[in-house]
Each structure stands twice: as C-alpha cells, then as structure tokens.
Amino acid sequence: MRKKLIIPILAIIFFVGLCASTMAGGHGHKAPKKVGILLVAFGSSEPSAQVSFENIDKQTRAAYPGIPIRWAYTSHIIRKKLAKQGKHLESPEVALAKMQDEGFTHVAVQSLHTIGGAEYHDLRRTVGAFKMMGEFQRVILGYPLLAAQEDMQRAVNAILKSIPSDRRKTEAVVLMGHGTHHPSNAFYAALMFQLQLKDPNIFLGTVEGYPEVDLIKELLLEKKIKKAYLMPFMSVAGDHAKNDMAGDEDDSWKSILTQAGIQCVPILKGTAEYDDFVAIWVDHIRGPLGHFE
C-alpha cells in the first residue's frame, strides 16, 4: 500500500515543484547560499523516547554550529498519534517543502534509521523527487547508521562499550533489532557475526526479520546460558523495547527466555542515548555537507 501511495504523492510534488521552478527561473539570479540539515527518523510517540532524539539534536548542533536543523518523521502513524497529543511533526516531504519556502538552497537530509531498509529507500525517493524539482541547488541524503564496514566496526565498539559493567562473560547479551523483509535485513546477521568475533555470548535478533527470537533462544540453551541482558538495538527504547522485548506478555522476549530457564535483565535504553552511536549518524552528515563547499 505504501508504494501505491508514494508514487502519486511524489508525482504531485514534482509537478508543483516544476511549475514553481519555471516561474522562479524568470528572476534570472541565483539565490544566496543557505545551508540546512534535515534530520529524519522513523519517529516515536513514547515520551521516554524523546531523550534519544534530544541527544541526536544536541550532538548534531555541537558538530555543525551555525547550521539550522529541522526534523521530520517518516511514520504517518506516529505523526498522527503525536498530533492528537498536540505535537506536530512533519513528513520529509512537507519538511523539505517548508525549507524551500524558508530559502534554503543546500540541504543535507540525514537518515536516522539503523539500516537502509524500506523506510530509508522511501526517503531516497523523496529526496530524489526534490532533486528533480530543482528548487534546491543541492539536496543530498546521508547514510543510515549501518551502511559500510567502517560503520559496522564502530557499531561493534559502541555495543561493547554500552554493555553493563557488572555483566559476566558467561552471561549473554541479547540485542533486539527491528528487522525487515527488505534485503538490508542481512546487516543484522552480519553484525552479530562481527560481535561474536569479539564476544561469543553476544546475540542479535529481530522482531520482524532474521534472526528470530526462537533461534536466539536455541543458541542460548545450547551454550547453557542462565542469564541474559536484553538491550534494544534501535535508536529509541520505545514500544518494541518496552513491550516486545521487556513486556510481561507471554510472547515478549523476556517471557520466552524466562520460560526457557534464562534469567533476563532488560536495559531500556535506545542506541541514540549513547554518544558513540550518535557519532556515526552525525559523521554521516559530513558527506552531504562536503558536496556543498
């Protein structure tokens, strides 16, 4: 359904932008350079998740002082929930259109997704449509958290650093990623492989992809592990972390592993609460900005 909707939406954006560009072209002068950053997250309606976004915003402003920053959420459901709470977040399309109105000529659109999945590729199409419109002199999309081997190595180090200090090597660390049916889901298994080269008792599963929690459970039982720290491998400790990972329902990861005889210690802290993870996203902004010089 999302693909069926996005095509006509982008077609409308392109048509309106083309008309505007044609009209603007008659002025015969180039607008003064104005650089901006648009941070784009999936979003969350959980109040506790806002600390993650605040940390990203803080670190971005510190890294790029003087450059205006705007925000957008890709999730229509999250934006609708927040609107009912009196909080209004724009979609990437609306946010970019507003930045056009504000006179921005160069925009670095930074994805705050973990992998380059369906949401990221939808964002790529949106940015591509605005490129075709020609209203911005340059608009470039930055990579998500995991996009290259260097990112994987930095993520491994960040994960190792975020593990509670009182955890023993015989105890497991089970990370919960979101997962997707998109081919980029392979990043999760690849990351677990690299993690286990450093620490064989660290596991990474997903809610909606592979590896699944049942496989993680089997691996823990094979190793006769009796205790596991559960940590979200998502930017925010939102609904998935609170319910799917640490909830009391029978199908939560905590319940499934507890029933298998494994003591669980949930850590409700999203990756964007840790500076080492945020630094990866923030550094990805340098790529687009470098093309503006």
Question: Please, could you describe this protein's structure?
Answer:
The structure is a single chain. The chain is 47% helix and 15% strand. With 293 residues, it is of the alpha/beta class. The protein has two domains: 2-146 and 275-290, Rossmann fold, CATH 3.40.50; 149-270, Rossmann fold (3-Layer(aba) Sandwich), CATH 3.40.50.1400. Strands 2-1-3-4 form a four-stranded parallel sheet, with helices on both faces. A four-stranded parallel sheet has the order 6-5-7-8. The two termini are 39 Å apart.
List low-confidence stretches. 18-28
Q: How many structural domains does the protein architecture include?
A: 2
Please report the first level of CATH classification, the CATH class of the largest domain.
Answer: Alpha Beta
Please count the beta strands (DSSP E, at least 2 residues each): 8
Strand order in space, largest sheet: 2-1-3-4
Q: H/E element string?
A: HEHEHHEHEHEHEHEHHEHH
Helix content: 40-55%
Q: What are the key terms here?
A:
single chain, 293 residues, alpha/beta, Rossmann fold, 2 domains, four-stranded parallel beta sheet, 12 helices, 47% helix
